[in-house]
Design brief:
The structure is a homodimer. Helices cover 37% and strands 26% of the residues of chain A. The first copy, chain A, is an alpha/beta fold. The two termini of chain A are 31 Å apart. Chain A has a six-stranded mixed sheet, with helices on both faces. A four-stranded antiparallel sheet of chain A has the order 10-11-9-12, covered by helices on one side. In chain A, strands 4-5 form a two-stranded antiparallel sheet. The N terminus of chain A is likely disordered. In chain A, α3 packs across α4 and α8 runs antiparallel to α9. β2 of chain A pairs antiparallel with β2 of chain B, so a sheet runs across the interface.
Chain lengths: 261, 261
């Protein structure tokens, strides 16, 4: 069994036998440049090894209408939707109420979540602000938070996690354990000291020959000279090896030694 | 004169007197985790100083349908849309054709762009692959590329730039020079060694008192102990100073010395 939107295509990440996911990073601090997002990279890389492909990531402000419309669009389109941020105790934490609105359910004091807060802070220290973190949409299941108590939650295929990296990582690992997974996406990288335009035509013909392998070409500069990395990805190891060898051969034909990794 | 979607709100970045922008980062390499995106932070921070607020960022795969639908949604919603990535010479560079499709115009060999490639590579070195980089939607104006010749382009309020950071930075600075700008968004930061939940209620009342100032609360851990940073932003310096002083006073009332920056 595989997920939504299957089919092979050269460059749009439709790897055969994988599930498709989207990430919603919630928080003005990312959009103002105050905080460098690292969740997209961390989650994208981790999912891929488990046959789940991160196909889109959106960074949103702490805006209820935006969160509602975005989550509703993405949960219909993808197998899994992950959100990070906005589930703390302050006035700018509006993710839980937004998710409830997206699903058209009320938000309620969740007894299980409240007990987790009591365990974390002590019964007399669950202030009204902290108690906000036990307000969870009706019908959600909790995602444990081993770092600071206040849980995330899951509604259908939407997984709502904290924004603080060490908390998000722990929540994500817990969520990942319970997800249906696809074929791992394998990758090979070939680096060489050529400008990508020199090999673009040949590379395109290799891509056409291996429709089940996705070939990306990423130019960069080293000491002011053009280099390029070719990244080949597939869930089919045999095709991947053949396409990689053809690409390496193409580099050698231009008088350069491919550096494989 | 100010841009689309004006109005004050506590947490959704609707700073008075600013323009609104969206960023589309195009490239599978970001979604697979191979490459850490740094464009969102760099662009978001820079825009804010010029009274343009980055209100949404989306990372997309190299997928024509996705790029078309996303760019069309965002260019209707925001004053400015910036895209990065996918304008090189290889088969996975499909941004220019996608933008043409989004605007419903043909893509053509742009004489001015072709001349730039001739100047960069020499007339006999403009291979068919390199010539692809002169294919520009009809009606676009070029964005110069002082690093490697091949230009970006602008169509109405959409600015299409390269993905390689040093090229994107040069293109962006050129684009920014020509944009209509709003009131600069000013910010103040207060750090303290308190858990955010302790001050959440008071902070909420300060937020309610200053609707033209946006107050964000960002928890973190230092040596395992909870800290919090309050970030206050506004285009109105007088309100910003007052709200900052009230927030600092709130921290002192809890027996901690606020660290301002």
């Amino acid at each position: 069994m595989v997920g939504k939107k299957q089919g092979l295509n050269m460059t749009d990440m439709n790897y055969s036998g994988t599930y498709k996911a989207a990430l919603v990073v919630i928080g003005n601090e990312i959009l103002t440049g105050r905080t460098q997002d690292t969740h997209t990279q961390w989650i994208g890389e981790k999912l891929l090894k488990h046959g789940i492909v991160l196909c889109e990531a959106r960074t949103l402000p702490d805006n209820e209408d935006k969160i509602v419309s975005t989550v509703n669009a993405l949960r219909a389109e993808f197998d899994y939707v992950f959100t990070t941020g906005g589930i703390g105790p302050t006035h700018d934490d509006i993710t839980a109420q937004s998710i409830a609105k997206a699903f058209g359910v009320p938000i309620e004091n969740n007894g299980e979540a409240y007990e987790l807060l009591v365990k974390q802070y002590g019964a007399d220290q669950v202030t009204p602000a902290r108690a906000r973190m036990a307000l969870i949409p009706v019908g959600a299941s909790l995602i444990p938070n081993p770092v600071s108590g206040a849980p995330g939650f899951a509604m259908e295929n939407v997984y709502v996690m904290a924004g603080v990296p060490r908390i998000m990582h722990a929540m994500f690992d817990h969520v990942l354990d319970g997800l249906q997974k696809g074929k791992p996406v394998l990758s090979r990288t070939i680096m060489c000291g050529l400008p990508e335009s020199v090999v673009a035509e040949k590379l395109s013909s290799i891509q056409a020959q291996y429709p089940g392998v996705e070939i990306g070409s990423y130019p960069n500069y080293r000491d002011g000279k053009p280099h390029v990395s070719f990244v080949l990805r597939s869930t089919d190891e045999a095709s991947l090896e053949k396409a990689t060898e053809d690409t390496a051969q193409m580099v050698r034909a231009h008088g350069k030694e491919p550096v494989m990794s």
